[in-house]
Design a protein that fits this description.
With 125 residues, the chain is of the alpha+beta class. It is built from two helices and five strands; from the N terminus they run E-H-E-E-E-H-E. It is globular. It binds FE2/S2 (inorganic) cluster (FES).
Length: 125
């Protein structure tokens, strides 16, 4: 199982100062939910802030015992959401959550900001 965590309070950098606008993260959540519906092993949850506010929209991809990835600088459009959901499906299919670069959807390339090993496992000695 893989979870896509979508920051719903993200604002795109060029629009961050205009607080009258709805955060782009809310639209991103809807697009990601729609895209993930095609992938049975993928769930979606909202969160307020992933601490990557300078480069919204931000999301994280994680699963029990798997590598976690944080990605940002997305645009809240169906095409970006589809790439995220496709990557998450590949993450779900891999026991360690590591997707070979050759399998990355084009739409996620250049968006990775962090890679975090499973935090629920003891460190290798
Ligand atoms: S508001 Fe989205 S990462 Fe902070």
């Amino acid at each position: 199982m893989t979870t896509i965590t979508v920051c719903t309070t993200c604002r795109q950098p060029s629009l961050r100062e205009d607080r009258t606008l709805t955060p782009c993260g809310e639209a991103m959540l809807t697009h990601v939910q729609n895209a993930a519906a095609a992938h049975p092993g993928v769930t979606v949850r909202p969160v307020s802030c992933l601490m990557g506010c300078e480069h919204g929209c931000n999301i994280a991809i994680s699963g029990p015992g798997k590598m976690t990835y944080v990605l940002g600088s997305f645009t809240p459009v169906p095409e970006d959401a589809a790439a995220i959901a496709e990557y998450a499906a590949k993450h779900a299919a891999n026991p360690g959550g590591v997707v070979p670069y050759r399998e990355w959807p084009q739409g996620v390339k250049g968006h990775f900001t962090a890679r975090v090993p499973p935090l629920d496992e003891p460190p290798a000695l």
